[in-house]
Structure formats: C-alpha cells, structure tokens
C-alpha cells in the first residue's frame, strides 16, 4: 500500500495559487508546522521549557523563540508549542521523559490550524479591517501573540516584525479568513 | 439659466475643472469644489424639492448637514442610487445624476400640492384623529395609503453594486471637526507626539474658515491659515487626516463611529476602493469641535424657495462664488445678519433691507452696514412673503413698544435671509450621555458635565469669537493629549486673529406677525412640514413635555433630526405655556448625526464573507461527486449523493441499502472532538457524564451522555480511552463549542483542583466512517499495526496504528447498526486517505452517503439525535438512555436534579416508535399526536413526532416520537391530525431493524 503520509493538502492551497502580489500587504501561506497545546501545573511548566528547547514565556500574550522552535503564551496555563514538520515524535518523547510524574497535558494539534503571513507597510491596517485590537507598535509590539477575532473567525495573531504578522487559524475558518484578507487588501493592490 | 449667478472671481472652486451634471434630466454646469447645491444656486436654481406633507415648493435653506429641504436622489443607475441625500453635502463630479423627490408629475407642477389647500384638514396629529373608524380599515386601507403618500424618496430598485469596508483604529486624541477650534486642537495634540485623528465631514478641512471673507489669522487670510495648519499636520507621522468623514455616533467607552465617503465624489471610480469605509475609533480622549448651526426664524411663509439661512448665503457667496440672489431682505436677531449682508453686498447683491428683531443694533457690524448705506430697520419683523416657485416679496412691519405689530410694507426681493442666532452642535456630546446645561445669555444648551473622556471646544460649547475659539481649541487639544498620557507638553502657542465678531444675540420661538394665526403657515420644521400653529395646537390639546409634543406634531423627527427646528419648537412651547425653556425638557440626540448607509454597517459581511463557511477536508471530493450539501451550524455537510435522475428520496434509499447490504463511506469530520488529558481525566469524565468511566479499559469506547445541571440531556457522543490519563471525547457537530465551554467552566470554577486539561481537536482529525457488512474487508488491506479481527477489535474499541502510512486512531463504532469503523486521520491527510479507502471499496460497491442517509440508518435502529429527539426537557430515561446513567456513582452534573419527583413522574414524554397504518404515509416531523381525534379543539396533545423517514430496508415509513407515558402505550393506536386529514398510527418500540443488534458484528 502506498504511503500517503507526505500528501498533505492545505486548506488554502487554491487561494495561495491565485493570490496577487501586493508589496504593501502581502499574503502567504506558512509551511506546515508541528503544533502542540501544552497545559499543566507549575512544576511541569518549568520543566517543559528545557525539554522543548524554548523557555515558556510567563508574560501574558508573548512568544519566545529559539532556533526553529517557538512557544506562544495563550493563557495562564496554556501554551502553543510549534516546530518544523516532522519534529512531533521527538517532542512527545522529550517532554514525556522530562515531565514524567508532573501533571500536564500535551496534545498534537498540528493539523488543527494553518499559518498565514501578512506583511508589508499596510499589514496592520489590513488586519485592522477585521480585528478590533490596537496594532500600534506600543500596544502590540514585536514579540506579541494573542487570541483574538478576525471578522467572524477566531485567530491567534502574532507579530514577528514591525511590518509582519502571522495568523494561526483553524483549518475550516481559513478560507473565510483568506477571502477577508484579500478583500481588505484590495485597495492596496 | 446659464451660470448667471456665478461670481466672476473668488471662491474655492477650481475654475480650470468645469463639470457637467444633470438635475431632473436637465443638464447643468459647475466646477470642481462645488456641491450640488452650490452649483444649482450658481445656475439660479433654488427650487429643489417638494415638502413632505403639503407638497409645497421648497428651496435650498442651508449649506451643510442641517439641510431640511434639498433632499435629492443621486445615482446614474439603480445599483448606485441613494435617496434622501442632502444636496448641500453632495460633492459635484462630472456626470453626476440627481433627481428631486416627493413630486409628481414634475417639480414645478406637483399634484400633491392639493394637500396645501387641504391644510386646515391636516392639523398636527391628524392621522390619529381622522383615521379611527372603522378599526379594520386601519390595516387594510389607511395605513398602506398613508405610507404610500408619506415616504420621502424611494428605495433603489437593484442590489447595491458598491463595496463597503470597515476598519478599527485607535488613537490617543480624536478631534471631530476641523474649523478653527478643531484645527487648533489637532495642532496642539499633534505637537505632543501622541496619535491624533482629525476628521471632518467636508471634502476640505477648515470648516467656517473656508467661508470667511475678511478674517485674518497670524497675518494670513483665514482659509490660507487653515491650509497651512493642515500642511503642518500632514508632515507629522502621528496624525491621520480624514476628510469626507462624518463622526455619526458616540458609543460607550469612547468608541466613535466615523463614516468615510471614499469614492462618491469621483466621476470615475477606482474599483479597488470601497464606496464607504466605517471607522470604529477607540480614542483615549475626544475633542468635539462640531461648531454651531444657524437657527432659522419662524415667520409666515418662511419656506419659499429663496428663503435661506444668512450664514449659508454667505457661504455660497464667499466659498463657492455662487450668488444666491440679486436682491435680499435680511431678517436677523443678532449681528450675524449684518455680517452676511456686508459679504453679499460685496458680491454684488443688493441688500433691500435688514429687519432686526432687536429694538436697537449698536455693534460694529450694524455700524458698518449703516455706513454702507443699507436700510437697517430695528424692532422690525417679517410678517409674510409672496412668490410661487421663488420668493418675490417680503412683508416688513414694525414691532411697537407694546409688542403689537404695525402695518406691513411689501419689499420686493428674490432672497430672504434668516439669522436667528447660533445653536451649538451638541449632538455628539449628548450621544456620549454628557449632561447639557441651559445658558440664558446664549439662549442655548451647552455641554455641562461629561460622562465619557471628551471635551468640547469652540462654537459647539458657545464660544464664537474667532480668537477665543482658536485659543479654546488649542487649550482643549493640549489638555486632551495630556489626559491621554502624552509625555511631552504642547508648546504654548497663541494665534493672532482679526475678525468681525457677530456676538451671540439670537431668538428662539416664533417671531411676531400680527396676522390671523389660523391662516399663517410659519414653518418650524421644514422637512416634516410642522408649523408654529401645529405646536401651539399641541399645547392647547394638553401636551406639556417636549418629548410628547415632538411625537404628536412630528417636529424634529425627520431625517435632519431637528437640527434647525428643535430650539424654535422649544421656544414656541415655552411661550405658549408661559414656562421657562428649561422646564419643558429637551429631546434626546440620537445617532447617527446624519443618515448613514446600510452598506457601511454591513461592511464586508456580504456574499462569501457573510458568515464563515466551514468545510471538511473531504468537502472538495464530495463537491466533485455532485453531492447536495446542507448547513449544520456553520458547516457545509454532504446531505446526499444523487446519481443522474435521482431525487433525494431515491438517492437516500439507494445509499441506505448499500450500507445495509455491503458498505458505505461517510464524512464524520464535523463531529466535535475534545482531548481530555491528565492524571484526573477519568475522575473529570465521571463528574461530567452520567456514565461510569473509572473501569473503562484503555483501548475501549463508551457512549457518553451529558446533562445540564437541571438534569436534561444536553449532548452525547462516543468517548475513547486512549491511555490511563487520556480520553478522546466526541460531541455532536453543533454542540462542540458549547460542550467545551461547559467543561472548561466546571473545571475552572468548581474543580480547579483536578489535574486535567481540555484541548479542542475537532479540526485536528478528519473522520471517515466506513459502515456495512463489508467494512472490515475494505479496511483490512490498508491498515498496518492494527488487527481488525472481531477478537482483537470488538465493537466499541479503539486502536492506533497507520492506514496507508498515515497515523490513525481507528475506532470500531457504529451509528448505523452495521459493522462499522471510524477512521481518524490528521485533517490535511483526510482526503487522500478517503480516496484510498474509496478505491479499496470499489470491489464491494462502496457507496458514499450523506447526513440524510445517516439520519435514516440511525432512526431505523432507534438511536437518538440530541436536539432532534431531545428538546432540552428530556431526561436520559425519557429517551431510553436510563442504562447510561451510573446509578452507583457518587455524583455527576445533573444527578441531583434527576432525583426530583417530577423527573420520574408518570406521564412524562417517552421515546417510542410510530408506524402509520398506511405504510406509504410518511409523517411530518414536529406533528402533534392526540389520543382522541374527536375531542373538541383545542385537543389535548399527548406528544409529537421527532423523526420520520421512508425506510428502504424496512420497506415502509417509520417514525420516532416523544409520547406521554409512551412505553405503556406500545400497541395502542394514536392519531396525528394534519390539514389533509387525521392519520392513525400504532405505537411501537423505537427500534425498527435488527432489534437484537446482531449485525454489529457483520
């Protein structure tokens, strides 16, 4: 039987193919990543950082990175761990070893959501068409990550650079979010 | 007429850019920078509409948002048509198409004008008094007729072709209005470095400064100073400048709604741009610099075309180089009328006379008017006008010391200007719930105390003198920035202003005229055709509160919300009741400040963006197969897969038989999934579900029932124990968010001590159900590391391994009553695995089936659907799930409620089956059931049909129902009364197929 495990289909593939190039508000699908939701008690939270390779940020709505791994603070006891595709098995093993006996939960959600990058001088402006947050650099600095809404969809919004945001959105809402972003950036095309 | 009223020089129009437009089909010319109103005035056109009730000819009254008369429909076609736009705010562009409203057959000859002759029959509240009998005629005759006759404008006949966008913005200081106060405020706030948004409803910043002829600020003509101030603001990165942007609503917590008109002023529109953009601005501090509106004066026949506000006439002349007439009579209650007279005289308008209501006029402006040789008459009123489609005479009469009015003198004129004094624009302040206070000296309500973080500056708080306005604006802008946390202070700038001050004298109420009040139509509210007589009638009929008078007479209730009329109405009531204005009350100012399109509120939410359409990873495959879809919450689910020539009934019958006889494949990806993980996971499950979980072995599945605290079934689903500390919970499709929220709520508020956590995995997994006697044969060649044999994987058990190389959680579970499996694979791989299974099933005729077939199959087995068999008042026992309640359990959500006597009382509705006596008859879901069809109406009802289908495998119709004491009625005959006749039914067990469950093992 053929091995189909490398035949991933992105929920926004057709949009990506048709997307125009807009320098001031560019849209792109991010490569698939491994994602885990980590939740737990204090001892596990402390121990999880070294095991994953990135200390879990304790400041609300911030993310931390080391190498190609990233941890997003999503709640007082909830983090989203992300790593390149294929790292899942190792992460499960590493954390299981480090957290043995420490109450926690680690759940693979790699396919639950996908990433969209919005970049360019008008990136914040485009996102503000559907997101009510203050995206000024002071209120939403580089390094910030938060759950929020975009139109009628829930997203996780991450600022990776002054003019670059990443949106993490559940698979079935991705079509809506992409279409909305296209509509919002149309005036900058 | 060919531009005969365009001044040869001056104004802010761009004479190098001539434009053509049409009004009521006639072609006219104007210039860039004109409004529709200014261009019409320059062409000598004042008659632009007919009034609402009496169809009287009406002209342009104002030059701005306060316009009550000049409402026009604009748009070259129905898809771009907007009714009821104020011509004074419609920017001219080449090719603009406008039409007048409320007239037939034409503007100059309108049949509806007979209403004017019938005016004695149409007093205030006439429809309350006239159309009372017979009562039934109200809905069938009076109301439709009145509605047809009453509307203003017409709705466009085609869908709106334009796009609208919405934008959220934040700033430290929002300045609303860009007259002298607003510009100064913006300059001050901008200097501190905080984020500033300055908005103005006009196409150009500057407000009243754009209409000044003589005023000088810092050595520059006022308009040039404004341009310099804007240029300075433009250089700052921290300032956002928005012209053509109306602040229409002040919402709680300093959320301000701005309507930006992006493309209406463009002859050729850029398709990338939206027509309008909604700005929802959250401002730390707001400076309201909304200016003031000039009050008209209430005198008989003050509504003829050619009667307009003095300041508006000045604006047309100074700003638009459009001369509003040749010979003007100015009726004033303060010095503002003199300023207008002097400006118009400078433009070549003959000032026939200035009638001043005051006994004396001693200021600098009256002195200049007298020096210019203008006939100034103090203690003088206007008692009426003449002229059919344009004013031709004004009747001036002296007011004697005893208050009586002397004989009138007819003064020929084509223009009558009204200067009743300034009314501060407190609309936004009032919307912010700020408290207004009456200022007797100004005869005006002004902001008194704030609720939101805002402050008013300039004329909107009764400060009128230019130097004082600039200082006030700068002060307020500086204070706002500081309050918003600015770390640097604004420089202390001062402005040297030189302007003629018109003071603050004014008049409210109705001017004396000495005529028989029964025959004098002195208009208070032009748009709703309310006269001073109507308001006095209301007071005679016993109305005291302005809120009641407003609704009875409709004054102030038109689209202009009484911008020009409210204060005069108050004055008239005050005079009639001999009561101070402050004792009469003030009507509430409501959003929007000016009418706002529906499109801007809909914004992006049209078409594909109306709501998210959630689709599964397998959706594309189903669409390619020609599946019909149904909406289940936001999801699109394949409903059935029709072959050519099949209707739903035929397709479903075929799909059902395929599952029963061989194998079917079904996309169950929308099922809610929650991963419950932690050392206390089993304990948590024990508390949330009625079932007992502690003894559920790893690798086993169990059907779980969840209750609300009131003991009623709220959700169900199959739960797999993947490890000692890990459960894979499924929920109904629609219940997924609700169940997760309820679980999280209990965890956080009731049991924070439990070491267990919840993660939604609904979208992590695609779920492929393979059901039917051949299901195992289809899957067996595809899986690795999983033994599908009945011994290794019995019904209700789970295994992990791979399928086609893809990691899977494979469940042996059935919602059809057949041998069945549910293959969970990571979502992005759902479709390729589905296609692989489908290909492997070809030798068995594997048949894709949709939700309708799924419903029929489970109904044949008597499996309930939460939300279909249950309605929020069903206990587990009611729906035959008593077996799922762990009787020995110490506690679970809803347990105590189940112990209430009523929850086990006889006569509760219970799940049963129904078989119609005629097997071809399919009952209607929701139909009521009675025991005695001969009982008098209303018949006592004993239950209702919850599910009903034609079953191919049973060979007849089947139905599930909730019937009072149903289990004890099995074998009885009941009746379903329907419009086409009563249908007798037999009560049965709710399982119609394979009651012993032998087919689960294939």
Automatic annotation (TrEMBL), chain A:
- From its record, what is one biological process in GO terms? sarcosine catabolic process
- Signal peptide location: none
Give one GO molecular function term. Answer: sarcosine oxidase activity
Pfam families for the chain: SoxG
Entry-linked InterPro entries: SoxG (IPR007375), SoxG_het (IPR006280), TrmE/GcvT-like (IPR027266)
- Residues crossing the lipid bilayer are none
Q: Which SUPFAM superfamilies match?
A: Folate-binding domain
Protein's recorded name: Sarcosine oxidase subunit gamma family protein
Q: Which species?
A: Methylobrevis albus
Automatic annotation (TrEMBL), chain B:
Q: Which residues form the GCVT N-terminal domain?
A: 618-889
| UniProt signal peptide | none
Keywords, sorted A to Z = Oxidoreductase
An example of a GO molecular function for this protein is: sarcosine oxidase activity
User: Residue ranges of the SoxA A3 domain?
Assistant: 521-603
Which terms under GO biological process does the entry name? tetrahydrofolate metabolic process
Which parts of the sequence belong to the FAD/NAD(P)-binding domain? Answer: 172-440
Cited Pfam families: Fer2_4, GCV_T, GCV_T_C, Pyr_redox_2, SO_alpha_A3
Keyword field contains Oxidoreductase: yes
Q: Where does the Aminomethyltransferase C-terminal domain lie?
A: 909-994
By sequence similarity, the record places it as follows: Belongs to the GcvT family.
Protein name, entry field: Sarcosine oxidase subunit alpha family protein
Q: Which organism is it from?
A: Methylobrevis albus
Organism placement in taxonomy: Bacteria, Pseudomonadati, Pseudomonadota, Alphaproteobacteria, Hyphomicrobiales
């Amino acid at each position: 039987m053929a091995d189909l495990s490398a035949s991933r289909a992105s929920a926004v593939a057709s949009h990506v193919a048709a997307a125009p190039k807009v320098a001031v508000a560019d849209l792109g699908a991010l490569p698939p990543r491994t994602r885990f939701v980590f939740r737990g008690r204090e001892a596990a939270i402390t121990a999880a950082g070294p095991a994953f390779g990135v200390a879990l940020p304790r400041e609300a709505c911030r993310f931390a990175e080391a190498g190609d791994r990233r941890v997003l603070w999503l709640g007082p006891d909830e983090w989203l761990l992300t790593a390149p595709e294929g790292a899942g098995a190792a992460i499960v093993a590493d954390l299981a070893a480090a957290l043995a006996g420490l109450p926690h939960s680690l759940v693979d959600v790699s396919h639950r959501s996908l990433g969209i990058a919005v970049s360019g001088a008008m990136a914040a402006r485009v996102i503000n068409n559907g997101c009510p947050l203050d995206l000024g650099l002071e209120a939403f600095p580089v390094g910030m990550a938060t759950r929020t809404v975009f139109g009628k969809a829930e997203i996780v919004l991450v600022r990776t650079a002054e003019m670059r945001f990443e949106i993490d959105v559940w698979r079935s809402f991705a079509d809506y979010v992409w279409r909305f972003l296209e509509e919002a950036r149309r005036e900058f095309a | 007429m060919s531009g005969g009223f365009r001044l040869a020089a001056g104004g802010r129009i761009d004479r190098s850019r001539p434009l053509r437009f049409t009004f009521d089909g006639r072609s006219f010319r104007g210039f860039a920078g004109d409004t529709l109103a200014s261009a019409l005035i320059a062409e000598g056109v004042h008659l632009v509409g007919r009034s609402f009730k009496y169809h009287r000819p009406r002209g342009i009254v104002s030059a701005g948002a306060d316009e009550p008369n000049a409402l026009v429909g604009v748009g070259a076609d129905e898809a771009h048509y907007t009714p009821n736009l104020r011509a004074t705010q419609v920017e001219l562009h080449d090719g603009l198409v406008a039409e007048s409203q409320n007239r037939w057959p034409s503007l100059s000859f309108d049949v509806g004008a007979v209403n004017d002759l019938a005016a004695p029959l149409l007093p205030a509240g006439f429809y309350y008094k006239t159309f009372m009998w017979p009562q039934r005629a109200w809905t069938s005759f009076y109301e439709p007729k009145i509605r047809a006759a009453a509307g203003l404008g017409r709705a466009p006949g085609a869908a709106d072709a334009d796009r609208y966008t919405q934008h959220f913005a934040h700033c430290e200081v929002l300045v609303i209005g860009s007259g002298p106060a607003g510009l100064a405020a913006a300059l001050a706030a901008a200097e501190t470095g905080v984020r500033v948004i300055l908005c103005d409803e006009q196409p150009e910043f500057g407000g009243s400064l754009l209409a000044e002829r003589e005023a000088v600020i810092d050595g520059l003509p006022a308009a040039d100073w404004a341009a310099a101030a804007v240029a300075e603001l433009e250089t700052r990165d921290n300032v956002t400048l928005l012209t053509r942007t109306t602040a229409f609503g002040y919402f709680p917590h300093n959320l301000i709604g701005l309507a930006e008109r992006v493309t209406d002023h463009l002859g050729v529109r850029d398709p990338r741009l939206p027509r309008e953009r909604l700005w929802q601005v959250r401002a730390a501090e707001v400076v309201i610099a909304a200016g003031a509106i000039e009050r008209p004066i209430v005198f008989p026949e003050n509504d003829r075309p050619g009667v307009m506000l003095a300041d508006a006439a000045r604006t047309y002349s100074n700003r638009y180089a459009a001369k509003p007439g040749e010979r003007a009579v100015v009726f004033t209650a303060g010095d503002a009328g003199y300023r207008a007279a002097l400006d118009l005289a400078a433009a070549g308008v003959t000032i026939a006379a200035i009638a001043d209501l005051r006994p004396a006029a001693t200021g600098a402006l009256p002195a200049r008017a007298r020096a210019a040789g203008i006939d100034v008459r103090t203690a003088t009123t206007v008692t009426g006008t003449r002229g059919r489609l344009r004013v031709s005479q004004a009747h001036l009469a002296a007011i004697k010391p005893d208050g009586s009015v002397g004989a009138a003198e007819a003064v020929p004129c084509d223009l009558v200007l009204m200067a009743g004094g300034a009314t501060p624009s407190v609309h936004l302040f009032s919307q912010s719930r700020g408290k207004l206070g009456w200022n007797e000296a100004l005869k005006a309500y002004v902001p008194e105390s704030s609720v939101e973080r805002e402050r008013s500056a300039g004329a909107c708080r009764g400060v009128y003198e230019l130097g004082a306005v600039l200082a006030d604006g700068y002060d307020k802008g500086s204070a706002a920035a500081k309050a918003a946390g600015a770390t640097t202070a604004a420089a202390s700038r001062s402005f040297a202003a030189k302007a003629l001050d018109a003071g603050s004298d004014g008049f409210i109420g109705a001017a004396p005229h000495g005529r028989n009040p029964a025959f004098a139509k002195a208009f208070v509210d032009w748009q709703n055709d309310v006269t001073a007589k109507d308001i006095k009638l209301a007071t005679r009929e016993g109305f005291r509160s302005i809120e009641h008078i407003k609704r009875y007479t409709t004054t102030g209730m038109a689209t202009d919300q009484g911008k020009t009329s409210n204060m005069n109405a108050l004055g008239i009531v005050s005079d009639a009741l001999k009561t101070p204005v402050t004792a009469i009350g003030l009507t509430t100012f409501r959003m929007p400040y000016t009418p706002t399109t529906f499109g801007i509120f809909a914004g992006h939410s049209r078409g594909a963006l109306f709501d998210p359409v959630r689709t599964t990873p397998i959706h594309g495959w189903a669409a390619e197969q020609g599946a019909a879809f149904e909406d289940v919450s936001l999801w699109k689910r394949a409903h059935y897969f029709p072959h050519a020539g099949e209707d739903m009934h035929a397709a479903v019958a075929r799909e059902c038989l395929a599952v029963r006889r061989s194998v079917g494949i079904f996309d169950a990806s929308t099922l809610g999934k929650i991963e419950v993980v932690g050392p206390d996971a089993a304990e948590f499950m024990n508390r949330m579900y009625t079932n007992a979980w502690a003894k559920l072995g790893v690798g086993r599945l169990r059907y779980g029932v969840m209750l609300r605290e009131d003991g009623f079934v709220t959700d169900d689903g199959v739960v797999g124990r993947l490890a000692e500390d890990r459960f894979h919970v499924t929920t109904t499709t629609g219940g997924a968010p609700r169940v997760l929220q309820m679980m999280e709520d209990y965890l956080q508020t009731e049991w924070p001590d439990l070491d267990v956590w919840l993660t939604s995995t609904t979208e992590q997994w695609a779920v492929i159900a393979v059901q039917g006697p051949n299901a195992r044969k289809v899957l067996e060649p595809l899986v690795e590391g999983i033994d599908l044999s009945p011994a290794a994987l019995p019904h209700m058990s789970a295994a992990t391994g791979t399928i086609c190389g893809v990691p899977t959680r494979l469940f042996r579970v059935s919602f059809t009553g057949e041998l069945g499996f549910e293959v969970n694979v990571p979502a992005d791989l759902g479709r390729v695995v589905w296609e692989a299974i489908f290909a492997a099933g070809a030798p068995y005729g594997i048949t894709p089936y949709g939700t309708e077939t799924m419903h029929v199959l489970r109904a044949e087995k008597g499996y309930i659907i939460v939300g279909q068999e249950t309605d929020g008042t069903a206990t587990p026992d009611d729906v035959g799930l008593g077996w799922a309640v762990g009787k020995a359990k110490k506690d679970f959500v809803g347990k105590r409620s189940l112990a209430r006597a009523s929850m086990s009382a006889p006569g509760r509705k219970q799940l049963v089956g129904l078989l119609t006596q005629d097997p071809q008859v399919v009952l209607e879901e929701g139909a009521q059931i009675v025991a005695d069809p001969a009982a008098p109406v209303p018949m006592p009802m004993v239950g209702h049909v919850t599910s009903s289908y034609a079953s191919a495998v049973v060979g007849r119709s089947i139905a599930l129902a909730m019937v009072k004491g149903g289990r004890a009625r099995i074998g009885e005959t009941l009746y379903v009364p329907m419009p086409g006749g009563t249908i007798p039914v037999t009560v049965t067990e709710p399982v119609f197929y394979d009651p012993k469950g032998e087919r689960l093992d294939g």
